[in-house]
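Hi F.,

I've been meaning to write this up properly since the lab meeting, where we talked about keeping a consistent format for the predictions we share between groups. The idea is simple: the sequence comes first, exactly as it goes in, then the structure tokens exactly as they come out, then a line or two of notes. No screenshots and no reformatting. I'm using this chain as the first example so we have something concrete to point to.
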Amino acid sequence: MSSGSEQAPKPPEPSGVDLARVALRAAKEAARARGDAAQQRKQARRGGGLRSGARADGRDPMPLGPAINRLITERGWETPAAVGGVMGRWPQIVGEKLAAHCVPQKYDEDERVLTVQCESPVWATEVRRLAPNLVARLNEELGHGTVRQIKVQTPGGAPRRYGPLRAPGSTRSSGFYE
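Output, unedited:
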């Protein structure tokens, strides 16, 4: 606890120059507030809101194509959009004959893998054989490194199980290796 003889020193009284500065600051703030209020009343009489001036800005109408391109760029959708375009031009990229038997299904952007569905194991083998050339061609269209691998699927092709022989419907191994 403090004794009565110890008191905090009083701040010095503001001088004439300091008082003038405080008064000037208060007057400026009041004038700014009056100006803002007047501007708001003027906008309210004219219909309010932002208006486009003589110069173009981001609020002006634009054609659909540039608007979509701007949206794609702002959202970072360049690669998925480019891959979607390639899927639409698949016959021109891989050739009519191959495109008639194999269709792109999906693109994994994280792994950079394009999955292709083939109508038969024969065509799946052909796509696997051509995969390096197809990856190179796709990267020419999309930019280097966009596609690293082509994953080929055949119809009804469940993943193969490697390991001990199994009887249909069994869950245990055949007993040869136990």
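Notes:
The two ends are 86 Å apart (CA to CA).
The CA atoms of residues 166 and 174 lie 6 Å apart.

If this format works for you, I'll send the rest the same way.

G.
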